[in-house]
Amino acid sequence: MKKVYLAVTPAYHEQEDIVFKYAIYNEQEQFVQGDVLYHDYRKPVVAGLFAILELLKVLKEYRSETIEIIVNDGALLEQLQGTTDTKNKDVIKVAAFTRNKFNAFSQDIHVKSIAGQYEETKIWEEKLSRI
Question: Against a cut of 0.85, is the pTM above it?
Fold first, then answer.
């Protein structure tokens, strides 16, 4: 099993890049891989969805294993599950596309949001601080 800690820093101006930071750990909590990726500007409301798409490219080699992606973003989790009640057409379109790619990737992959959980958030920050 792989645990992947993911943080997304959206760009608020078109001249800035989105920053995706991820860290992959194995079942013994040993660091396996991590990186900081930069991507061209996307609207901040869809930055998390694009981060998931980019992360799936990195995770191809672990496709046969169980993967848990840990994020600090409850809205992203709702968008991936299809339970968001947003009316934003960009979000709905990108969420449907991302959800299809995510579900086709593997049946043993899921996302967990730690938003609002203080102790879990501290662990998430510590794991990502190694990058």
Answer: yes
Helix axes 74-81, 89-105, angle to 10 degrees: 70
Sign of the dihedral through C-alpha 91, 82, 66, 123: positive
Give me the number of domains the chain comprises: 1
Beta bridge partners of 19: 9, 38
The domain spanning residue 15 has which CATH number?
Answer: 3.30.420.10
Phi, psi of 9 (to 5 degrees): -115, 105
pLDDT in tens, 69-96: 999 999 999 999 999 999 999 999 999 9
Distance CA 31, CA 58 (A): 15
User: Residue 88 is part of which domain span?
Assistant: 2-128
Q: What is the pLDDT of residues 26-70, one digit of tens each?
A: 999 899 999 999 988 888 899 999 999 999 999 999 999 999 999
